[in-house]
Write a structure and sequence with these properties.
The chain is mainly β. It has a single domain, classed as Exo-inulinase, domain 1 (Jelly Rolls, Sandwich). The protein has 2 helices and 16 strands. The strands form 2 sheets. Strands 2, 3, 4, 5, 7, 12, 13, 14 and 16 form a 9-stranded antiparallel β-sheet that branches. The N terminus is likely disordered.
C-alpha cells in the first residue's frame, strides 16, 4: 500500500464532525520512506501552516475514558463508574448538504498480505468488497483539510487525522455514494505521541452523511482499552452519549506510541461484534440504527494535537460472524 506521494490536502465538502469530551505488523515492502520522527516533524509543520476554519461547529460531547455519560438500560455491559458526566458543547447549526461524489467507486482489492489466525474475520470472509490504501483522499472521497476540530492529510501512503481540540472529532468517507447495511469494517491504526486516555477509532451507521450527528463509536485508547458508544446529537439540547460497552482493558490491544492495531467491527442487524488484531473482544446488541455511513475519529485526553496514522481501511458487505 505504501508509495511515496507528495503532500496532498484535498478540501472536499463532506461531513466532518466532533463529539464533546501502531500500524499492523509491518512488512518491509510496506514501510513508509519517512521515519516516525520525520513524519511527526512534517505533520507539526503542516499543522502550523494550516488556515483557521471559521464555519460553525456542530454539537460535540467532551468525553474522557472512565467517565460515565449515560448508562445504557438495555445492554448487559453496564458501566460501574458513577463519576459525574462530562458535558457536550452547545448545539450549533449543521453544515449544509454535501454534493454527490462524482468519482467512480473503487475496485475491490485483496487487502494486506498476511495469513489471518482462526477466528479472525479475514480468515473466512475472503476478499474485501473494497480497500482504501490511503494514498490520497479520492478513492473513498474523504474530506481532507482542516476544520475547527480536526485536520486530515494524506502523506506517503498514510492518512493522518489530528484532533485540534479536547473533543472527539471525525471525518466520514463516501466510497459508494450510499449508506451501508450489514458490514464488516476494518482499519489499521498507528497513534503518534499519546497519553493513556487518548483515543481513536471508527464511527459507523451514521444516518445522514451531511449532518454526521449520530452513530456508533468504536474506539481504542493508548493504554489498551476499548469501548462501544452511541452518540445522538439530536437528543436534547446537548445530545446524549450512551455507553453500550464501557471502557475495558484487553491484552489484544497493543499499548503506547507508534504501536500498530488492526480494529474491526462487524455489524449484522442489531449485532455489533468488536475485534482487535483479529481477536473477538465482545458483542453487544443495539438496533437504534441498522445502516448508515462510516468514518474515523480521534480524541485527545491529555496530548495536544494528538494524531493517529491510518495505513489502510477495508470493508466486506453482508458478512457472517
Amino acid at each position: 500500500m505504501k508509495k511515496f506521494l507528495p503532500f496532498l490536502m484535498v478540501a472536499v465538502l463532506l461531513a466532518g464532525c466532533v463529539l464533546p469530551s501502531s500500524r499492523p505488523p509491518e512488512n518491509p515492502s510496506t514501510q513508509p520512506t519517512l521515519s516516525d520522527v520525520e513524519m511527526q516533524t512534517q505533520l507539526a509543520m503542516v499543522l502550523t501552516a494550516m488556515p483557521t476554519q471559521t464555519s460553525a461547529p456542530q454539537t460535540q460531547p467532551t468525553e474522557t475514558p472512565g467517565l460515565v455519560i449515560v448508562t445504557a438500560t438495555h445492554s448487559p455491559d453496564q458501566p460501574t463508574n458513577t463519576t459525574a458526566p462530562a458535558q457536550p458543547t452547545a448545539t450549533s447549526t449543521p453544515e449544509p448538504p454535501q454534493p454527490t461524489a462524482t468519482n467512480p467507486p473503487p475496485t475491490a482489492t485483496t487487502g494486506p498480505a498476511f495469513t489471518p489466525a482462526p477466528g479472525d474475520p479475514r480468515s473466512h470472509l475472503g476478499r474485501p468488497s473494497s480497500t482504501d490504501g490511503m494514498d490520497d483522499a479520492l478513492a473513498w472521497v474523504w474530506p481532507a483539510g482542516p476544520d475547527d476540530f480536526s485536520a486530515l492529510i494524506f502523506n506517503d501512503g498514510w492518512m493522518i487525522l489530528t484532533g485540534l481540540t479536547d473533543k472527539l472529532a471525525w471525518r466520514l468517507a463516501n466510497p459508494e455514494g450510499a449508506a451501508f447495511g450489514d458490514l464488516y469494517l476494518e482499519a489499521t491504526f498507528k497513534p503518534t505521541d499519546c497519553s493513556a486516555g487518548d483515543q481513536y477509532g471508527m464511527i459507523v451507521r451514521v444516518p445522514v452523511l451531511a449532518d454526521a450527528d449520530r452513530g456508533y463509536l468504536f474506539g481504542f485508547t493508548c493504554d489498551g482499552r476499548y469501548s462501544l458508544r452511541k452518540w445522538d446529537g439530536l437528543d436534547g439540547a446537548k445530545g446524549k452519549l450512551t455507553r453500550l460497552k464501557d471502557w475495558t482493558a484487553s491484552d489484544a490491544i497493543l499499548k503506547g506510541t507508534n504501536q500498530v492495531n488492526r480494529m474491526g467491527l462487524m455489524m449484522v442487524g442489531t449485532r455489533l461484534l468488536m475485534y482487535a488484531n483479529g481477536q473477538l473482544l465482545g458483542e453487544v446488541s443495539d438496533g437504534t440504527w441498522t445502516s448508515g455511513y462510516f468514518g474515523l475519529y480521534v480524541g485527545s485526553s491529555a496530548t495536544d494535537d494528538f494524531a493517529v496514522m491510518v495505513d489502510e481501511m477495508s470493508y466486506w458487505k453482508n458478512p457472517t460472524p
